[in-house]
Specification:
heterotrimer, A alpha/beta (264), B alpha/beta (179), C alpha/beta (353), A: 264 residues, alpha/beta, Rossmann fold, 7-stranded mixed beta sheet, 16% strand, globular, B: 179 residues, Pyruvate-ferredoxin Oxidoreductase, domain 3, 6-stranded mixed beta sheet, 6 helices
């Protein structure tokens, strides 16, 4: 890992390995966007100088081992319960910064009650919601966010909305709750999008630090393995199909958050 | 010595409260005591009911099938618990609401026109204390003053306005039992 | 400290406060809602955490989170709610964080009713969740014991980094009895959380709390460590009460409220010349098997009485190992067995064994 000490005095570091990441190789598939999102979170935590007081809560899903990759205090929640666990941590340790990292099955199916109520209470936690429209870890089953007609191993004829219902738009759903201060949907499908996603993650953590309420960043992501596409094709597929259904942008910016945005 | 007192009636007649005042008084007098609400046999017999056990030794079962005394404040309570009282026991009947006479010659039965007496005092709310006064006097388990002291000590803030009324009701009930 | 008349639910709640409870997460369910209501006033006035969760599932996971942060934490519920918490119990057990759970048992199965029951014995003792573990299970028989065991539950949970459960039938929560409340212990300041707690990796390597061990060898090692801890608990923490067992020929084994009811049975039996005694397990896990085996060698028979269809009965039989006859009497559906129905059982056994 390159650190500040390794850099000659006449040079200025412009790109480093974040201190908030460990040096372990991840188990994520080649082309998976989890790695990008991990890095964005780590950079934000480093930049905000909060690494030593941040506690992460990992989900059940592909990111179940996130605690191996973040150089942070971390715990592993039961499937869908990360917001409840984060609530417990934050309530007894208000000075810590607490975030959950959850996938679409975890947050939008089995953990729907926990995320809705944590958001509605205005719990001072930050949720990073990775939406790739499929169950990755269990091998590509239909998710609550799977698109109409999308083929998965449990919707072999394509998602039939008459039988399986419609994909859930969580950012919109959470955005209407009074306790949610900042809710946004971003995508890590190209470089400008990645930059915007980082800004959103940064703002979400700042909302927590300022005590303004619940914050969530939904991030449209890919699963090239279970989609059966190459990494590049997966990025294009997500742009072509996911973005139209899941429009990018903020679904909730409380007035106090707007004021915070203007400060920085 | 162990006495088991069952107090039964409709909700709102203050049976649980009367039992609690008795339990407080027994505790302050140094006895072992248990107070337990509507459990045990004849569950349908009294909408609102408690059992108070007062003993000079550690109390085992907090429930009994055959109490040594009972206050019945409603007809269903009378029907359910008059047969249950132990032979030689005491039965206090709220005669204002219960027209029938006891069929138990082996009990000491007190017919208390509790509602009429309470109205004389200005509030039907204290009918429970009139019955309790009669019971305590008839059983002579505790001096009446211990109940009054328990009320002094434990009556909650919202009810303190009724303190002297409750005490007077207790005394009226006791004097009826003395006659 | 003066004796005060305490209702069981409030006594448990206040005892938890005195034990240094920092946070309570719960969901209303009869017949223990008074615990939640009491703490909803009491904890905020002391500057501590109270939160009514959206479900028992959320409650136990909030408890799990707060326990990971190193706080003294508890929840309480009744049978159907406890079933919902079982997922969390298993995670807490594997992660080895301390937490206290109170179960004021009601009639089941299903929604059952709100009357007192001991139908969750198996659930608490044998299978509090998936996988190999036991919580420490404490069964008070009086309000004073409910207070004392609540304090003990926190201490044992901390000492062994485990889940400690207090189980009682619902009537104990509604009953009032004089009891002494211990003095208030100071709450551990946030700066003094245990070294394993998730407080932020300041000046140390990160702490990770997980129950996931993908490699079989790793998970086996974790299980072996848990089993070793359970053996330590079993060796050190068995508790029970005996009544008139010195010369007893017939032994009643009963826990909780039924245990104290059977104390009356023993008195009445003795008055009739029957040499009866009572063993009341105070810890249901670990179970006083050794003592029951000792007594089995010298009594003519044992009568197990429960408010269920015969659950602790199995543990008694395992301990007795056929050294003496074991009979059972139980009531179901929220019915409480009374002395006058238990005594004939004892007399029948006296005639037969």
């Amino acid at each position: 890992m390159a650190t500040g000490q390794d850099i000659p005095p006449d040079m200025e570091p412009v790109y480093q390995y974040p201190e908030s990441l460990t040096s372990r190789f991840t188990h994520y598939c080649p082309g998976c966007t989890h790695g990008v999102i991990h890095r964005l979170i780590a950079e934000v935590i480093d930049e905000l100088g909060i690494r030593e007081r941040t506690v992460g809560v990992a989900p059940v899903g592909c990111a179940v081992l996130a605690y191996d990759y973040f150089n942070l205090d971390f715990c592993e929640a039961a499937h869908g319960r990360a917001p409840a666990m984060a609530t417990g941590i934050k309530r007894v340790s208000p000075d810590t910064v607490v975030f959950t990292y959850q996938g679409d099955g975890d947050l939008a199916a089995i953990g729907t009650a926990e995320i809705i109520h944590a958001a509605n209470r205005g719990e001072l936690i930050t949720t990073i919601f990775v939406n790739n429209a499929i169950y990755g870890m269990t091998g590509g089953q239909m998710a609550p966010t799977t698109l109409p007609g999308q083929v998965t191993t449990s919707s072999p004829g394509g998602r039939d909305v008459r039988m399986a219902g419609w994909p859930i738009k969580m950012a919109e759903l959470i955005g209407v709750l009074p306790g949610a201060a900042y809710v946004t949907r971003q995508a890590v499908l190209d470089v400008p999008g990645i930059r915007r996603a980082k800004q959103a993650i940064r703002l979400a953590f700042r909302v927590q630090l300022a005590g303004l309420g619940f914050s969530m960043v939904e991030i449209l992501s890919t699963c090239n393995t279970n989609w059966g596409l190459s990494p590049l094709e997966a990025l294009e597929w997500a742009k072509a199909h996911m973005v139209p259904y899941y429009p990018l942008g903020d679904t909730k910016v409380a007035d106090a958050v707007r004021a915070l945005m203007e400060q920085a | 010595m162990q006495e088991e007192i069952l107090i039964s009636g409709f909700g709102g007649q203050g049976t649980l409260f009367a039992g609690q005042m008795l339990a407080y008084a027994a505790m302050d007098a140094g006895f072992h005591v248990t107070w337990i609400p509507s459990y045990g046999p004849e569950i349908r017999g009294g909408r609102s009911r408690c059992t108070v056990i007062i003993s000079d030794q550690e109390i085992g079962s907090p429930l009994v099938r055959h109490p040594s005394a009972a206050i019945v404040m409603s007809i269903p309570s009378m029907e359910a618990f008059e047969p249950a009282v132990r032979p030689g026991g005491v039965l206090v009947v709220n005669a204002s609401l219960i027209p029938m006479r006891s069929q138990r010659p082996d009990l000491r039965v007190l017919y208390v026109p509790a509602l009429e007496m309470a109205m004389e005092l200005g509030s039907t709310r204290v009918a429970n204390m009139i019955c309790l006064g009669a019971l305590v006097q008839a059983m002579s388990i505790l001096p009446l003053e211990t109940i009054e002291q328990a009320m002094d000590r434990y009556l909650g803030e919202p009810h303190r306005q009724w303190l002297s009324l409750n005490k007077e009701a207790l005394r009226r009930g006791a004097s009826l039992a003395m006659q | 400290m003066a004796r005060e008349l305490w209702e069981g639910n409030m006594a448990i709640a206040e005892a938890a406060v005195r034990a240094g409870l920092e946070a309570f997460f719960g969901y209303p369910i009869t017949p223990q809602t008074e615990i939640l209501e009491y703490l909803s006033r009491r904890l905020p006035e002391l500057g501590r955490v109270f939160l009514q969760a959206e479900s028992e599932v959320a409650s136990i996971n909030m408890v799990y989170g707060a326990a990971c942060a190193g706080a003294r934490v508890m929840t309480s519920s009744s049978s159907p709610g406890i079933s919902l918490m079982q997922e969390g119990f298993s995670y807490i057990a594997c992660s080895e964080v301390p937490a206290v759970v109170v179960n004021l048992m009601r009639g089941g199965p299903g929604l059952g009713n709100v009357a007192p029951s001991q139908g969750d014995y198996f659930q608490a003792v044998k299978m509090a969740g998936h996988g190999d573990f036991h919580p420490i299970v404490l069964a008070p028989g009086s309000i004073q014991e409910a207070i004392d065991l609540t304090i003990l539950a926190f201490d044992l949970a901390d000492r062994y980094r485990t889940l400690a459960m207090i189980v009682a039938d619902g009537s104990l929560g509604q009953m009032m009895e004089p009891a002494e409340m211990p003095p208030m212990r100071p709450v551990r300041p946030p700066g003094e959380r245990p070294p394993w707690a998730l407080t932020g990796a300041r000046g140390r390597l990160p702490n990770v709390i997980t129950s996931l061990y993908l490699a079989e060898e790793d998970l086996e090692q974790v299980n072996l460590r848990l089993q070793a801890k359970l053996r330590r608990i079993a060796a050190n923490e068995v508790r029970w009460k005996e009544y008139a067992t010195d010369d007893a020929e017939l032994l009643i084994v009963a826990f909780g409220t039924v245990g104290r009811i059977c104390q009356t049975v023993v008195r009445e039996a003795r008055a009739k010349g029957l040499k009866a005694g009572l063993l009341r397990p105070v810890t249901l896990w670990p179970f006083p098997s050794t003592r029951i085996a000792e007594l089995a060698a010298r009594v003519r028979g044992m009568l197990v009485v429960e408010m269920n269809a015969g659950q602790m009965l199995e543990d008694v039989r395992l301990a007795v190992e056929a050294r003496c006859p074991v009979r059972f009497y139980g009531r179901l559906g929220g019915m409480i067995p009374l002395p006058d129905e238990i005594l004939p059982q004892l007399e029948a056994m006296d005639a037969e064994v």
